[in-house]
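thread: overnight batch results

M.L. [08:02]
morning all. the overnight job finished for the chain we discussed friday. pasting input first so we're all looking at the same thing
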Amino acid sequence: MSHAIVIRELGGPEVLRYEEVERPEPGPGEVLIQTAAVGVNFVDVYNREGRYPNDLPFTPGAEAAGTVMAVGDGAPFSVGDRVATGEAKGAYAEHVVVDAQKAVRVPDGVDDHTAAALLLQGYTAHFLSSAIVPLDSSSTVLLHAGAGGVGLLLTQLLVARGVRVITTVGSDEKEQLSRAAGAAEALRYEGFRPRVRDLTDGVGVDVVFDGVGRDTFDESLAAVRVRGTVVLFGAASGAVPPFELQRLAQAGSVMVTRPTMHSFLRTSEERAERAEALFAAVAAGSLDIRIGATYPLAEATRAHTDLQGRGTTGKVLLLP
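M.L. [08:03]
and the structure it wrote out:
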């Protein structure tokens, strides 16, 4: 037997139930991972609330690190291998079966907690920094939620490319974290648009990376330069309502894109390339992974409550 978080009805954090379940077994091309740490992400909240379709009951979670306990036919791993994934189904569990093509080996020098904290948000930060809009030392960007899990990683990756990063944060503590990650400026959300204009001599930023959504989107459009880009990659405050596309013309031929991680992990080669780059940066000390809070697996409800209340900084982990 094993234990997992099970959702039997959609709703708030209280629907996350810690239950005893049968230990799963891997099929062909799969591996069974005994999880050492499980990543908590906003996509888990969206699944819990029903924004994305799932058949009930289900176990949430896409991100985990641990040890291979069993190997299905054709899977390129061995029992005892340390692995991580950002693309599991049902990772809020002591044991999870994963498609071996969506798991990567964890190199020596990277511990399980760091590996579990890195991949999903790391994959996102990696493709946002390198694959959406060409950015270099002449670029200035605005990044919302600069002290969040993606925000801290993305800031570091952008600064490593020479980009000037302006962030928004919600407190003095989060401002310190964001600046420590390399942000040139860390602003409060209220009134950020005129401050951004002031900091860019009235021009606006080249790109806005907006993972907040409903509460920031309108001002994000107003903070970007003519022919700039708003990259909407999350909805922490809720989904952006439908809007008239003519607004993009009025804003100065602004472009809006809504990328997702899976579109940038389309092949095993692309996945391995991004994972290797992230692990190498961690091992070299150039990418710091901040684990802001850990909770026992059985306390997933509290973890979700704190995450949605913006009471966390950096990465949130569940420990089986």
